[in-house]
C-alpha cells in the first residue's frame, strides 16, 4: 500500500500470492508465481507500461510437472562465496498448518546431472560453499526414480579440497530409510556434519493432527542414530508452540525432548493460523497460552550453552561472511557451528585452523593458528560482489574489453542457453539521469530482474 501511495510500480512474488491470488489486497498488482521467477523481466516491463500481469501457471514437460526455473540461468549471488541450489520444489506431505504446499504443490525434483553441473560451475567461479535447499531435501528424487544419497555422492565427487557442502532441511520420514548412507555422507570431510530435522512437537497426538506422518519415536531414532554414527553432529530442529488442540501435557512432552537433546539450534514458532489451511479451522489455543508456552520454551533453550566445552579446541573452519556488527569474519567448523575470527582479508574464502578461546550461546571465537596450513578451495578468483554468474571466461573477457565477438562454448563451464549481448547495453546503475525506480519484494528480485532482462532481451548471441 505504501508503494502504491508513492506511485511506485509493484511486482509481487512468492508462495502467498501463488496460493491466494484473489485476495483483495492483490487486486491490480502484477504477480509472479513460484515457478515463473525466470520470467520476471516480462512482468516488470509490462508493469512499467501500466499493465497488470499474472503468471501463476505450473511448468510441465510432456505432462510432467517440472521443478521450476532452470538451474543454469545467470544470477547475482548475495555472497560470491556461497551458492544456494534448490534440489526440488514442493513436497510429499500435506501438513494441516502449511501454506507452502498450496503454492508449490507436490514434489518435483531436478535431475542429478543438472544439479552437479551447477555445482561444478559454481566452484569454477570461486564459490567455496554450497547450500542445498528445498521444502524437504530428504524427499529428493522420489518422483524421478532416484534418492538423496545418490545425489549427494555425485556432488561430493565435484567438491574441491577446501570447499564444503551443507545439507538443507529434511523431514524424519524420508531419511529413516537412508540412515546408514546419510551417516557415511555426513562423515565426509567436505560435507558439514549438520542436519535440520523439524520435530514440531513431541506429542504423537499433536503430530497426528498436524499430519506429519511420523511419531516422536521416529524422530528420536533418526537423531540417536546420527549422533552415534556421526560424532559431534549438529542437529537443528523446529517446534510449533500452541498448535490447535495442544494440551499442557502435550507441551510438557516437547519441553522434555528439548531438555533431553539440548539442541544447539532451535527454531521456536508460535502457531499462527494460515487462512485456507485445515489447522485454521481447528479449535484454537488461547493467545495468552500460546505466548506463555513460547516464552517457557525460549527460556529453556537459553538456559544451556552448547559450546562451553569447546573452549581450547583446535578446529578447522571455512571463512565465508562478515559478522552483522562488522567486527569479525564469520566461519563455520565441520559441524556448521559459527566461529568468529579476526577480520583479516587474507582469511576470506579460506579454510584455516583456529584455537577456540571464547564461547557464547550461538557462536565461538577463534584465533588462527600460525603454523597451520591454509586451504583455498579454488584457484579461480571469486566473482566480485554484484558480478554475474553463468558466463564463460571468454565471454566475460570480451565483455570487459568491449570487443565485438561471437562467443564459443567453454569446455570448462557448460552454458546451454543463448545469452544476450552485453556489449551494446549499459546496466541501469551505469546510466546517467534518473532511471526507473521499481519497488520489488526484495533486493534479490530487483537484481534478478536486471539479469534476466539482459538475458532474454537485446541481440541474440548464440553460445
Automatic annotation (TrEMBL):
Residue span, MTTase N-terminal domain: 1-49
SUPFAM superfamilies: Radical SAM enzymes
Recorded topology in the membrane: Single-pass membrane protein
The entry's keywords: 4Fe-4S, Endoplasmic reticulum, Iron, Iron-sulfur, Membrane, Metal-binding, S-adenosyl-L-methionine, Transferase, Transmembrane, Transmembrane helix, tRNA processing
MF (Gene Ontology): 4 iron, 4 sulfur cluster binding; metal ion binding; tRNA (N(6)-L-threonylcarbamoyladenosine(37)-C(2))-methylthiotransferase activity
Location relative to the cell: Endoplasmic reticulum membrane
Transmembrane spans: 438-457
PROSITE patterns named among the record's database cross-references: MTTASE_N (PS51449), MTTASE_RADICAL (PS01278), RADICAL_SAM (PS51918), TRAM (PS50926)
InterPro entries with a match to the protein in the record: Elp3/MiaA/NifB-like_rSAM, Methylthiotransferase, Methylthiotransferase_CS, Methylthiotransferase_N, MiaB-like_arc_euk, rSAM, rSAM_horseshoe, rSAM_sf
Domain TRAM: 308-370
Cofactor: [4Fe-4S] cluster
Reactions this protein catalyses: N(6)-L-threonylcarbamoyladenosine(37) in tRNA + (sulfur carrier)-SH + AH2 + 2 S-adenosyl-L-methionine = 2-methylsulfanyl-N(6)-L-threonylcarbamoyladenosine(37) in tRNA + (sulfur carrier)-H + 5'-deoxyadenosine + L-methionine + A + S-adenosyl-L-homocysteine + 2 H(+)
GO cellular component: endoplasmic reticulum membrane
The EC number(s) this enzyme carries: 2.8.4.5
Function per UniProt: Catalyzes the methylthiolation of N6-threonylcarbamoyladenosine (t(6)A), leading to the formation of 2-methylthio-N6-threonylcarbamoyladenosine (ms(2)t(6)A) at position 37 in tRNAs that read codons beginning with adenine.
Family assignment from sequence similarity: Belongs to the methylthiotransferase family. CDKAL1 subfamily.
Stated name of the protein: tRNA-t(6)A37 methylthiotransferase
Gene encoding the protein: Cdkal1_0
Amino acid at each position: 500500500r505504501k508503494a502504491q501511495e508513492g506511485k511506485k510500480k509493484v511486482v509481487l512474488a512468492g508462495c502467498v500470492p501463488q496460493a491466494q491470488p484473489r485476495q483483495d489486497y492483490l487486486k491490480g498488482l502484477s504477480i509472479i508465481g513460484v515457478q515463473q521467477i525466470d520470467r520476471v523481466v516480462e512482468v516488470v516491463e509490462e508493469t512499467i507500461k501500466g499493465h497488470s500481469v499474472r503468471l501463476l501457471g505450473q511448468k510441465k514437460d510432456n505432462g510432467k510437472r517440472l521443478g521450476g526455473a532452470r538451474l543454469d540461468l545467470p544470477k547475482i549471488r548475495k555472497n560470491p562465496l556461497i551458492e544456494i541450489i534448490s534440489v526440488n520444489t514442493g513436497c510429499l506431505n500435506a501438513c494441516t498448518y502449511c501454506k507452502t504446499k498450496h503454492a508449490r504443490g507436490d514434489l518435483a525434483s531436478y535431475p542429478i546431472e543438472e544439479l552437479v553441473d551447477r555445482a561444478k560451475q559454481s566452484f569454477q567461479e570461486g564459490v567455496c560453499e554450497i547450500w542445498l535447499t528445498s521444502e524437504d531435501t530428504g524427499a529428493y528424487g522420489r518422483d524421478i526414480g532416484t534418492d538423496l544419497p545418490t545425489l549427494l555422492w555425485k556432488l561430493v565427487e565435484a567438491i574441491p579440497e577446501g570447499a564444503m557442502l551443507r545439507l538443507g532441511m529434511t523431514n524424519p520420514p524420508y531419511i529413516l530409510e537412508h540412515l546408514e548412507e546419510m551417516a557415511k555422507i555426513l562423515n565426509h570431510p567436505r560435507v558439514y556434519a549438520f542436519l535440520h530435522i523439524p520435530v514440531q512437537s513431541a506429542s504423537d497426538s499433536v503430530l497426528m493432527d498436524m499430519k506429519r506422518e511420523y511419531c516422536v519415536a521416529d524422530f528420536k531414532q533418526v537423531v540417536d542414530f546420527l549422533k552415534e554414527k556421526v560424532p559431534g553432529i549438529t542437529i537443528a530442529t523446529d517446534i510449533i508452540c500452541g498448535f490447535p488442540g495442544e494440551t499442557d501435557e502435550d507441551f510438557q512432552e516437547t519441553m522434555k525432548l528439548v531438555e533431553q537433546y539440548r539442541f544447539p539450534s532451535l527454531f521456536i514458532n508460535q502457531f499462527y493460523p494460515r487462512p485456507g489451511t485445515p489447522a485454521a479451522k481447528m479449535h484454537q489455543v488461547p493467545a495468552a497460552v500460546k505466548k506463555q508456552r513460547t516464552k517457557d520454551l525460549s527460556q529453556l533453550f537459553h538456559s544451556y550453552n552448547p559450546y562451553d566445552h569447546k573452549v581450547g579446541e583446535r578446529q578447522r573452519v571455512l571463512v565465508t561472511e562478515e559478522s552483522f556488527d562488522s567486527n569479525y569474519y564469520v566461519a563455520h567448523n565441520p559441524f556448521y557451528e559459527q566461529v568468529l575470527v579476526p577480520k583479516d582479508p587474507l582469511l576470506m574464502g579460506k579454510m584455516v585452523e583456529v584455537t577456540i578461546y571464547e564461547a557464547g550461546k550461538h557462536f565461538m571465537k577463534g584465533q588462527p593458528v600460525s603454523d597451520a596450513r591454509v586451504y583455498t578451495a579454488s584457484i579461480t578468483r571469486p566473482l566480485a560482489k554484484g558480478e554475474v554468474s553463468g558466463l564463460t571466461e571468454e565471454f566475460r573477457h570480451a565483455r570487459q574489453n568491449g570487443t565485438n565477438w561471437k562467443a564459443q562454448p567453454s569446455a570448462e563451464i557448460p552454458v546451454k542457453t543463448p545469452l544476450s549481448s552485453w556489449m551494446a547495453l549499459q546496466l541501469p546503475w551505469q546510466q546517467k539521469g534518473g532511471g526507473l525506480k521499481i519497488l520489488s519484494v526484495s533486493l534479490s528480485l530487483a537484481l534478478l530482474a536486471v539479469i534476466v532482462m539482459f538475458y532474454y532481451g537485446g541481440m541474440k548471441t548464440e553460445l
